[in-house]
Design brief:
The chain has 19 helices and nine strands. By secondary structure, it is of the alpha/beta class.
Length: 559
């Protein structure tokens, strides 16, 4: 596939938002080519190859081009070429760089990024402008003779002639030189195919193949994007999880969920990471798929790759759901989930978890460690919090990895199904999370790097009406603590369940601001100083400006 087309489709919408200015779109296209050429240089890439680059790291662009003069030239040239304000151009570039980096890494898969970009040079080389040779390492573009310059055009722009010091004669030669270079590249590629029949780099589909498939090509080891939902007794959205490769796909799935389930879709948790595919084959049919599942109480559905797996407690409803989904998404494989095989589920989970751990490599991303650990099924005995023997070898390896990543902090979260009462389930989930921490610490893990949380039955990932759903809800989950500390530890908790209040007159102590369950409080008046009777809202306890002066509430009454 064309790398520039891919980045335009995935990154540009995130950068531009509702701004559909074609000049800015073309500016970004040309920047992607320059950026890719820069990343194709090993020395450049190796400076930050081991960094965990955040998607909103707008300082990343400065680390790719450490020379401020080069950064200024890129912004100035692109702004002038596409008639965009220079300040706006700098902002667009800074936003686009980390997002483009993640997309390129996702496409490269296990292939080193510089190698991947050099192997697929032809997909972006013709977008590189003439002037960019001054901001790119000399000789890094394979097939370009010393001193030769590449095309100055973007495929979506008409050819524009630029004034050059050497006059019209040299301008006339540029197309010829370009044709010679392209011919040389074509001959080299043909010769390479003859001499080396086995591909070396990550395969890239042609534009025609991409058009036929309707899918972006992703490295083979990238996990398929997935969506798992479950409905409740009243067909409400009871549980929802998605794993996607970028914000664009997340937004598309969320739009479909919201259209079907309304505000309930806001409780859907998303893991957005370049370990997952940026495409979901069923995404285009979600508007038809989701209402079918919504109409079946206590139903569950998993979309992963090109397969849809569903379940429901009512056999007739399940059969109808399978038939309706197959009609709505004929290109997908739709199947009913089979009977629960606990041992097989456990064995498969441990295999998958171990494989993920083996692929972490040196200096792994803590999120990948947490994700690998969460793949395992920890099948506690009924009413017990003792780590099963079958999980211990994997956990022992985990301790070694944690010792190699000293800055990693993990939250261990216990979950239950809904079989017992809520209070019992909460206590049991906490005990199981604690048992997991205790075991890891006994094997050498730093206890200060492990936190625990019990969620009881409050955060399901499946229905509680089937054996399969209850089995999946009984789980231990690992998350990176630093990423979740400011967001209720990464858990989606209902508004009525958690809202710690500092209002001492709140009878239920469950809200941040006074409301209907508070005693004697004006519900329209925020009260950050803790005293709901303080007129001026300026002190911790009533004093001379309060109507309660002289009462038992006012310690200053005799002053």
């Amino acid at each position: 596939m064309d790398i520039i087309s891919h980045l335009t489709r995935t990154v540009s919408p995130a950068v531009l938002g509702d701004d559909r200015n074609p000049a800015k779109k073309n500016l970004l296209e040309q920047f992607y080519a320059i950026f890719a050429a820069r990343l194709a240089d090993n020395d450049t890439y190796n400076r930050f190859a081991n960094e965990n680059i955040a998607r909103d790291d707008q300082g990343f662009y400065d680390r790719v081009w450490t020379d401020g003069a080069h950064r200024d030239q890129i912004a100035r040239e692109l702004a002038g070429k596409h008639n965009v304000d220079a300040t706006a151009a700098r902002g667009l570039i800074a936003m686009a760089a980390p997002l483009a980096y993640h997309e390129i890494k996702s496409l490269a898969g296990t292939t080193p990024v510089p190698q991947f970009l050099n192997d697929n040079l032809a997909s972006y080389q013709h977008h590189i402008p003439v002037w960019a040779s001054t901001v790119l390492p000399a000789g890094m573009i394979a097939g370009a003779p010393a001193g030769a310059r590449l095309s100055d055009t973007v495929s979506t722009d008409p050819i524009r002639r630029e004034e050059e010091e050497k006059g019209s004669f040299m301008k006339a030669l540029l197309p010829i030189i370009g044709l010679i270079i392209l011919g040389a590249l074509a001959w080299a590629l043909l010769r390479g195919c003859q001499d080396n029949p086995e591909p070396v780099g990550t395969p890239v589909a042609t534009e025609q193949q991409a058009a036929n498939d309707g899918q972006a090509v992703v490295a083979a080891d990238i996990e398929p994007a997935s969506l798992r939902i479950a409905t409740g007794e009243n067909s409400e959205l009871y549980a929802c999880r998605m794993n996607v490769g970028n914000e664009t796909l997340q937004s598309n799935v969320m739009d479909a969920l919201t259209a079907t389930f309304g505000d309930e879709a806001n409780n859907c948790r998303a893991d957005v990471d370049d370990n997952f595919s940026i495409d979901m084959p069923a995404a285009a049919q979600l508007a038809s798929i989701l209402p079918i599942v919504k109409n079946v109480p206590n139903a569950s559905m998993l979309i992963k790759g090109d397969t849809i797996t569903v379940n429901a407690p009512d056999a007739a409803a399940l059969d109808k759901m399978v038939a309706d989904l197959q009609a709505a998404a004929p290109a997908m494989t739709v199947k009913a989930e089979g009977p629960l095989d606990e041992q097989s589920e456990i064995d498969n989970s441990l295999t998958a978890s171990q494989a993920a751990m083996d692929n972490l490599g040196q200096d792994p991303d803590p999120r990948d460690v947490a994700r690998a650990l969460s793949l395992q099924v920890v099948n506690f005995e009924v009413d017990k919090a003792v780590i099963p023997e079958v999980n211990k070898p994997l956990l022992n390896n985990t301790v070694k990895i944690m010792q190699q990543v000293p800055n990693m902090k993990l939250m261990i979260i216990g979950h239950t199904d809904k079989t017992a009462d809520a209070a019992y389930n909460m206590k049991l989930s906490q005990e199981r999370a604690q048992a997991m921490k205790d075991y890891l610490v006994a094997q050498g893990a730093d206890p200060s790097k492990l936190m625990i949380k019990g969620m009881g039955e409050t955060d399901p990932i499946a229905d509680n009406a089937t054996d399969q759903g209850r089995f999946r809800n009984r789980r231990i989950e690992f998350v990176v603590y630093d990423e979740t500390a400011n967001a209720n530890d990464g858990m989606v908790i209902s508004k009525s369940a958690l809202d710690p209040d500092l209002n001492p007159l709140d009878s239920d102590n469950d809200d941040l601001m006074p409301d209907a369950d508070d005693r004697g409080v004006n519900t329209t008046m925020p009260n950050p100083d803790l005293n709901p009777l303080d007129r001026n809202n300026d002190d911790l306890l009533p004093d001379s400006d309060d109507p309660s002066r002289g009462t038992a509430l006012d310690p200053k009454a005799n002053n």
